[in-house]
Amino acid sequence: MNNPIPLLTPKPDHVPDELVVDYDYIRPPGMEEVGVYNAVKRLHDGPDIIWSPRHGGHWMVTRAEDVRFVQENYEIFSHEEFMIPRTLMPLKPLPLAVDPPNHARYRAVINPGFMPGKVAKMRDDARDLTIELTEKMKPNGCCEFLSEFARVMPVTMFLRIVDLPLDRREEFVEWGIAIMSSYDPADRMAAQMRVREYLKTILDERDGGEGDDLLTRVAAWRRNPRFQSEEEVLSMATLLFAGGLDTVASELSYITHYLAQHPEQQRRLREEPEIIPAAREEFLRRFGLSNTGRILTRDFEYKGVLFKKDEMIMVPNNLSGIDDRAYDRPMEVDFDRNAPSHNTFGNGPHKCVGAHLARAEIDVFLEEFVTRIPEFRLDPERRNVEHCGSVPGFDELYLRWD
Fold this sequence. Notes:
- By secondary structure, the protein is an alpha+beta fold.
- The chain has 16 helices and 12 strands.
- The strands form 4 sheets. It has a 5-stranded mixed beta sheet.
- A hairpin with a 2-residue loop joins strand 6 (300-302) and strand 7 (305-307).
- Helix 5 runs parallel beside helix 16.
């Protein structure tokens, strides 16, 4: 993937020198040596709010309370630009890239696909699939976790929700990763156009159909009185496609990487299944994922820092959950932690629509994979490849068991 080294942007006059930190969220310094979370955690040694000259120049909050503040105040910190640099996403996906009140009309199309009754049925399907995949790999004594599980179970579940062919799963994952992980605008645009061309055919086929899959619901928007353009349906469909192929796989990879190094925690999950809901929330706190941007709708002063209209600000969920002001011993995973809620799924109107499904898939993974696979560990003979960016995760994760 062509991810060019970005040029540094001169500091604007209103940015104090002491807030300037040469930080690249795609390549945090030291990531290869200490991992993503230890690398980004170093920002907590500096100011709560920083300005980076990377990727066109942008602000960044580093503390949990400020992440929540930005997420909740869309009137000031708009979602209409959510990638840094803003040139990365020329085709803005709905409803992600629109604020209330218009945001609600598009969420109303998607929300029914993730109602509690739907998620309950999907949980049963996820359990059956997890058992099947786990029992298949169990005799092998080893696996590459991403290709054999993390990009199979949650991606298969998503493809069933939108009723897309399961035999093209690997191809679809490649398309989704190209959209989410390329930091060259031309590459990302090409990936978006390839996905849109495919989805346009699917939407045309399902227009007027009676299926209750999400893409049929999106196609039906064409007959809504508030329908404005074909861009709306293509945009919603593309967001569903890209958003369903990466995030849960990344979360599962971090959970597994941690458990492979902590056999005592594996044993607790096997012996005390009643702690799984608390363990799931602790993992979601500890391994928050998305690093998204917002654009300032007006000049605004916050905590003594002056933000200017049209400036970009990054909201790092991977820093929010490891803030020592919000959580005692934040880098530790403590299944008995009585902690405040986390910001991993966002706050306010843009809170992740798939949060309930993601929780269900993590629960099933902890209930079935962890209890069925013998005590697993990292393969000492293989190198695990990790990336950062808008959605941190592993590209390769190798496990062994006896």
